[in-house]
Amino acid sequence: MIKPRIIALYLPQFHPIPENDVWWGKGFTEWTNVAKAKPLFIDHYQPRIPADLGFYDLRMPEVREAQAKMAQEAGIEGFCYYHYWFGDGKQLLERPFKEVLQTGAPDFPFCLCWANHTWTSKTWQKSSIMTKDSVLIEQKYLGEQDYVSHFYAVLDAFKDKRYICVDGKPMFVIYDVLQFTDISNFIKIWRGLAIQNGLAGIHFVGIAHSVSTTTIGEQKRWKTPDLNESSKIFNYVLNLGFDAVNSFGKRRAEVFHQGKFFFTLKLALSKLGVHSLNKIDYKDVIKHFFVPEDSWENVYPTIYPQYDRSPRSGKVENIYVNSTPSRFKKHVEAAIDLIKNKEPEHQILFLKSWNEWGEGNYIEPDLKYGKGYLDALSSVINREQYSR
Q1: For 284-322, how does the pLDDT look when each residue is reduced to its tens digit (9 = 90+)?
Q2: What are the tens digits of pLDDT across the range 218-262?
Q3: What angle separates helix 95-103 from helix 144-159, to the nearest 10 degrees?
Q4: In a domain, 387, yes or no
Q5: Does 388 fall in a domain?
Q6: pLDDT category, 25, cuts 50, 70, 90?
Q7: 112, 94, 181: which is closest to 142 by C-alpha?
Q8: DSSP assignment of 125-185, as one string?
């Protein structure tokens, strides 16, 4: 059997930047939210405290080396670094990856995910109900000249021997597919530039929920989620020019658990600033996380260890409870069973995430479970029957 390709999404936010100093206060990083988190109910696991790596600073190469070693030992193929390009050359949080690229260390595979979304006052912290959510920095799409500038800003990464490729092409993931109305033109331009610069092309992957709360492919309006629309959504993304879809089952699992009516009502009330605490058992999440279309050759499912965004958002979002390494292990096994008949190059699973501590969505060691989640992943991925 072939060893599955586990690609872990990686948040580079754990170091101060001038913009966050202005918006949130001197020295702000994701750790600020993590450390001040409070339990919202009995047995609520907060705050979550990092173990082996501590409250690290990603400006330190020793930290990046230790992360890569942990990931490699667990059977992870590489990191997919979130990449922030807001248009006209404006980037944020680029320092950790820039240093990885320039120094050649750690010697661990990587790729990029363009996190193409606007940052608002709720991006890293919750806003008061009485405070209007405000834009901090807007994601802009400025047309062909900016697309070209963006390409050349990442070309050195594409040419690096560590860059993760699929079918001989560097893989580039795009976070928000539906809000980028010129995305097909963007993909066409980048593919042309890739050939001009000696690459075989680019393997574009679009992230997509397996259900939608808005209409697809037309003027956006709210709708009740359809639990059987995954193929429609995935085909829409593929028809935009993407080579593959990274499917994400979180929303579908929550709709199954809460029911369409309650899920839609909670979403509508949230838009009005009315929030209620809602807990979801992790075992109910993973039960409905995948769809049959995840077994398509050009669909790469997501594996999801845990989720609790309350350090950032309070009780605005659902909180997953009773996640354990053993339950995560079963989740990974189910995912591998979905992809086992694909071509080896396409047996890809995205791990969301390596280190999104403010969302309680991480696999790094903490004080409660130690390396339990890493060990659970390793126990499946590093089995003797796998080879690559």
Answers
A1: 999 999 999 999 999 999 999 999 999 998 888 889 999
A2: 656 667 777 788 999 999 999 999 999 999 999 888 888 877 666
A3: 50
A4: no
A5: no
A6: very high
A7: 181
A8: SPPPTTS---EEE------HHHHHHHHHHHHHHHHSTTB-EETTEEEEEES--TT-TTHHH
- What total of structural domains would you count in the chain? 1
What's the CA dihedral at 268, 274, 280, 285 to 10 degrees?
30
pTM assigned to the model:
0.95
In angstroms, rounded to a whole number, what is the distance separating the alpha carbons of residues 232 and 210? Answer: 9
Residue 79 sits in which domain range?
A: 5-381
What average pLDDT score do residues 50-77 get? 98
Secondary structure class of 386 (helix, strand, coil): coil
Angle formed at CA 308 by CA 306 and CA 314, multiple of 5 degrees? 175
Residue 60 within any structural domain of the chain:
yes
Q: Which residues contact 298 (CB under 8 A, 6 or more apart)?
A: 238, 243, 244, 245, 346
d(CA 323, CA 154): 37
Structure tokens that stand for 201 in this block: 């092309």
Here the CATH number for the domain that contains residue 340 is: 3.20.20.80
Within a domain: 79: yes
Those residues with Cβ within 8 angstroms of residue 152's Cβ, 6 or more apart along the chain or in another chain:
193
